[in-house]
């Protein structure tokens, strides 16, 4: 289904610019509009604890407004902290894993380092943006996030192209470390031009009684996305919750999954995929591996709005038990919008488009609670766009 790996040399991937990194950033109105679409806000009084942004090939903004939350460009952090390179960098993901990791490892380090110090609970979300403002850019990103013992952070990351940019390449390696009794909620929103190829690689390690919540929303899927993050639950009582909401429009291909290894007693995990195709191709996956007394569930659901042009949804949830006390389950379903549902809502005064949007929104929300404002707005956007494709 996926295209072969593109030639990085056919994109702009290095230049001689020397960006100034700080807390002052000039943005055009069109930049702000594109960034706001993925939950990255630049206005007075924004409900954020700080901002980091890569624009095209370089970090241009990096600051934290709260004590206990340290933010640096990854190159600066690696130079400043030898322990970061020794203990964390390329520790969860090998630079030789595949062509994507090799490309990122060979490039000059770009990306962010975030550290929440032990016991600090950051009350406002921190926002990061990996932004292609120019066409034909090849971003090669490496991020490291450390949430120390007893700490908490909500991270919002927008990965996107400018609204006028169609072609690009985004390669990203992200390593997340969640300490004992810590909570990391990571919400990622993608919005890509029609000819953008996206290859993220991510891995997360969760300690005793730690909690990792991962939300992924794809507003504009670009040409080709392949993602299969790894999560290691290594401490007793560690847990992970995953939710993905994907809109695949005509010409797009999305292959997304998640591999979770439950390696300690009392660990638990839940994965929910929601995919809507209005002409694109979606493969939903997920593999839970029980290596101890644990609980896990995978739920893959899809709604095929249009089957024109080779559109399809394929759901492949999986479980593997290596321990007799592992309790693992999975389910998958793919359906369509029932005409009687639309007719009922129209009889109550809604237009056809409004009725379809409400039905899709209900499908996307099914079984999902506690949506934040940014995630709620993104899901509503998907429902409205999908309704137009009926």
* Biggest sheet: strand arrangement: 2-1-5-7-9-11-14-17-19-21
Number of extended strands: 21
Helix content: 10-25%
In whole angstroms, the N-to-C terminal distance is 24 Å
Low-confidence stretches: none
Classify the secondary structure makeup into a structural class.
alpha/beta
- Give the overall form: globular
Roughly what fraction of the amino acids lie in strands? 35-45%
Main beta sheet, described?
Answer: 10 strands, mixed
Q: Secondary-structure element order, as H and E?
A: HEEEHHHEEEEEEEEEEEEEEEEEEHHH
Could you give the topology of this structure?
Layout: H1 29-37, E1 50-55, E2 58-64, E3 69-73, H2 74-80, H3 82-87, H4 99-106, E4 112-116, E5 126-132, E6 137-147, E7 152-161, E8 167-178, E9 183-192, E10 195-206, E11 211-221, E12 224-227, E13 230-233, E14 239-248, E15 253-256, E16 259-262, E17 267-277, E18 281-290, E19 294-304, E20 312-321, E21 326-335, H5 339-347, H6 352-365, H7 373-388
Parallel strand pairs: 1-5, 4-6, 5-7, 6-8, 7-9, 8-10, 9-11, 10-12, 10-13, 11-14, 12-15, 13-16, 14-17, 15-18, 16-18, 17-19, 18-20, 19-21
Antiparallel strand pairs: 1-2, 3-4
Describe what this molecule looks like in 3D.
The mean pLDDT is 88. It is globular, with a radius of gyration of 20 Å. The two termini are 24 Å apart. By secondary structure, it is an alpha/beta fold. It has 7 helices and 21 strands. The protein has helices at residues 29-37, 74-80, 82-87, 99-106, 339-347, 352-365, 373-388; strands at residues 50-55, 58-64, 69-73, 112-116, 126-132, 137-147, 152-161, 167-178, 183-192, 195-206, 211-221, 224-227, 230-233, 239-248, 253-256, 259-262, 267-277, 281-290, 294-304, 312-321, 326-335. The strands form 2 sheets. Strands 2-1-5-7-9-11-14-17-19-21 form a 10-stranded mixed β-sheet, covered by helices on one side. A 6-stranded parallel barrel has the order 10-12-15-18-16-13. Helix 5 packs across helix 6 (352-365) and helix 6 packs across helix 7 (373-388). Helix content is 18%, strand content 45%. It has 2 domains: 8-337, no CATH class; 338-390, no CATH class. 50% of the residues are buried.
């Amino acid at each position: 289904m996926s295209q072969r790996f593109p030639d990085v040399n056919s994109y702009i991937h290095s230049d001689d610019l020397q960006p100034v990194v700080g807390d002052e950033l000039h943005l055009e109105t069109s930049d702000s509009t594109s960034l706001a679409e993925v939950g990255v806000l630049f206005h007075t009084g924004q409900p954020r604890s700080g901002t980091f942004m890569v624009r095209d090939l370089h970090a241009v903004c990096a600051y934290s407004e709260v004590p206990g939350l340290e933010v640096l460009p990854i190159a600066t952090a690696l130079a400043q902290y030898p322990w970061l390179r020794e203990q964390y960098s390329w520790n969860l993901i090998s630079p030789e894993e595949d062509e994507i990791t090799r490309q990122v490892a060979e490039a000059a380090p770009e990306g962010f380092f975030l550290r929440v110090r032990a016991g600090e609970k950051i009350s406002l979300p921190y926002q990061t943006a990996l932004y292609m403002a120019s066409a034909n850019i090849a971003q090669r990103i490496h991020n490291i996030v450390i949430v120390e013992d007893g700490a908490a952070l909500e991270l919002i990351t927008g990965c996107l192209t400018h609204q006028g940019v169609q072609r690009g390449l985004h390669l990203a390696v992200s390593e997340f470390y969640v300490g004992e009794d810590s909570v990391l909620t990571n919400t990622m929103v993608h919005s890509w031009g029609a000819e953008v190829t996206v290859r993220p690689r991510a891995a997360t390690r969760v300690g005793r009684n730690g909690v990792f919540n991962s939300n992924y929303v794809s507003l504009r899927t670009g040409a080709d996305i392949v993602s299969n993050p790894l999560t290691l639950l290594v401490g007793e009582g560690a847990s992970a919750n995953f939710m993905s909401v994907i809109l695949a429009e005509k010409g797009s291909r999305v292959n997304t999954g998640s591999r979770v290894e439950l390696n300690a007693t009392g660990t638990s995990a839940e994965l929910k995929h929601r995919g809507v195709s209005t002409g694109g191709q979606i493969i939903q996956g997920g593999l839970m591996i029980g290596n101890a007394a644990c609980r896990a569930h995978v739920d893959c659901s899809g709604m095929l709005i249009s089957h024109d042009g080779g559109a399809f949804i394929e759901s492949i949830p999986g479980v593997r038990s290596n321990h007799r006390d592992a309790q693992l389950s999975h389910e998958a379903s793919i359906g369509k919008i029932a005409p009687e549902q639309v007719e009922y809502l129209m009889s109550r005064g809604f237009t056809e488009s409004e009725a379809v949007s409400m039905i899709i929104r209900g499908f996307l929300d099914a079984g999902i609670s506690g949506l934040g404002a940014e995630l709620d707005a993104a899901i509503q956007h998907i429902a409205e766009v999908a309704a137009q494709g009926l």
